[in-house]
Amino acid sequence: MNIPVWAYYIKCREIKYKVCRQCGKELDGRKTAFCSQEHTDDFYRDHYWGWAANVAKREAGGICAICGEKPRWSSLVAHHIIPLNGERRDYNCLNHPENILVLCASCHRRVEYDLSWRWELAAERLTALLEPA
């Protein structure tokens, strides 16, 4: 079913009780989704791919989680640990920071190859990387 984006927008405004999507506090005035800019930023950071990927790269300090190299910023890739499996990447709950691993382009190619042909082996490697030493 192809419903235009504006249809969703209008429906959101027709909510009987306006509450913040982050904390549940009742909204005042013309606010329609969040009670503060901080809650708006938190939501975008955790759900929108563009924000989530940049936050992950910044928090990783531009360093690949596998090889430890610090490539050019444009060569860094934000990788989903739990794969999207055909779901939308631009807006998704799988974009939370704890599901994103920052990799250099060559490590990302290796991980993607392993994930597509040897899921168990790749999952073990990623789990080992995420466990504290």
Overview of the structural elements:
It is a single chain. The protein has helices spanning 5-13, 37-47, 49-59, 105-117, 119-130, and strands at 76-80, 100-104. Strands 1-2 form a two-stranded antiparallel ribbon. The termini are far apart. It is mostly helical and 133 residues long. It is built from five helices and two strands, in the order H-H-H-E-E-H-H.
List segments where confidence is low: pLDDT < 50 over at least 5 consecutive residues: 1-15
Strand fraction band?
Answer: 5-15%
Coarse structural class: mainly alpha
Q: Whole-Å distance between the termini? A: 49 Å
**CATH architecture annotation of the domain at 48-130:** Orthogonal Bundle
Biggest sheet details: 2 strands, antiparallel
Total strands: the figure is: 2
Instruction: Give the overall shape.
Output: elongated
What spatial order of strands do you see in the largest sheet?
1-2
String of helices and strands? HHHEEHH
What is the average of the pLDDT values? 76
Residues in helices, as a percent range: 40-55%
CATH class bucket of the domain at 48-130: Mainly Alpha
Kindly identify the CATH topology of the domain at 48-130.
Answer: DNA Binding (I), subunit A
Please give the radius of gyration in angstroms. 18 Å
Number of helices: 5
Compact description:
By secondary structure, the chain is mainly α. It is 42% helix and 8% strand.
List keywords for this structure.
single chain; disordered N terminus; 133 residues; DNA Binding (I), subunit A; two-stranded antiparallel ribbon; 2 strands
